[in-house]
Amino acid sequence: MKKNLMLGTSAIALGAIEAGISYATSYPGTPATQILEYIVTNSNIKAEWSVNEKVAYEVAYGVSLTGRRALCSMKHVGLNVASDPFMTSAYLGVRGGLVLAVGDDPGAYSSQNEQDSRFYATFAKIPCLEPSDGQEAKEMTKLAFDISEEVGLPVMIRSITRLLHCFSPVKIGKRRKENPSTIYKNPENMIAVPKHVINLHKKLNEKQLKILEIIKKLKLNRVFPGKSKRGFIACGITYQYVMELNKKMPILKISAYPLDEDLIKNFVSNLEEVIVLEEGYPLVEKLLRALHPNVKGKISGDLPLEGELGIDSIMKIFNGREKTFSEDLKDYLLPRPPVLCLGCPHREFYKALIKAEPNFVTGDIGCYTLGANPPLNAIDTCLCMGASISKASGIASQGIKRVAAVIGDSTFIHTGIPALINAVYNKSNILICILDNSSVAMTGHQPTPVLGLTARGEQTKAIDLYQLCKACGADSVEVVDPYDKEKTYEAIKAALDSPGVHVIIAKRPCILMAKKLKS
Ligand SMILES: Cc1ncc(C[n+]2csc(CCOP(=O)(O)OP(=O)(O)O)c2C)c(N)n1
Fold it and tell me: Which domain, by its residues, includes 13?
């Protein structure tokens, strides 16, 4: 069988292609962005950049209702946005296989937090598979579709940056045929209203035994015996780390959740010490502490609770090194924080904003967040996507004048629109600056609805931000070119000084995209 060197993201995408998906949805976010990009580039399967993760999940769920298979991918914090449909979809169940591929980011290389999606899977009571390398990522994704249809639930593939952004050999397989698309109606199981909920919840609880049976039958968690009385429980990628360092100790490799407690109990029964290795929060370790008196991991303080474990901290446990290799290197490597590009329109906009001297600037998530860094120091807070406008409303509600919110075009469409309507409805006095560079620049220039191109580069209706903001009831909407600093400054100053909700759209394509479009 042919093998290719592939990114983990490509391996998951290939698994979904081979599983016979009929649709793929996503909203970009590191480290998961390239999953959809691989599908678009390497197949003719229908695929979309959705406007946010909630919408992406719901569209994929709709595909599943027709009996067809769908993949939905996103970064970990995207699941916070999609958590409403995600949680209840477990109650309703699925028809065609529905797989949610989530990219977690331990170490927060490109994220606003380090949350661990395995807890979401446990919370929603759905199966979760955690691959340790690219080959497993592909195979588990395929398997996840089968499991999804067998148990009638969405299945999560939880992976992390280190796996998703590394190359490893992956065998190319055959593509399964698509499921037929049919209309199916079953109100009691498809409509989440109070009179159905208890029954739906009961059904979900009854599925838990079946999930465990499947996990056991497929031997997704495996014991590798060894002679020592010190054993390792290694989840996902950490299995590869242990194998690289010492193949002789007893190892329990965990690749599937919910946890198989019998297997774990059995594995630890003859051990004097158990070391738990897991990227993210200590989910397995927490359970294990009730099953064994000598557990080492993050809760015990033997491994760090924050940041990526990586092979470094595991080596500390193996051979008692005082410092990790990365800590050694820190003495030699200069930090290289990301900066706004030369010629970036955001930078020019910030110069005008700073000159207008707002009292407080709420930031959002995108390239423009880099305006928080010196020398600009242009924003005062950044929380999560879409929060700039609502935070500004909250601050202004307490009598603070001249408050500005800064948000990108993708983020505005993602979750900014309801906040604008809220500001208008609740009589805020704020300035909203939409930095429209017509792309999701931060994650690699995916198109936004403002650009009028789909994920496949096909022409579609372009969303007119000016008309949209007008329709939302903004008191004034002005479009400026951020390269025209004087006009931009005048517009900002006038808006900051007058009551009501004012929108300034600073429109100019991202400098890198403009170059790409020219070449
Ligand atoms: C909930 C969530 N989804 C996805 C991301 C990844 N992400 C970071 S910034 C960004 C959008 C940036 O686009 P835009 O607002 O247009 O700003 P630009 O980078 O183009 O300046 C995305 C999708 C995230 N941080 N949080």
Answer: 3-217
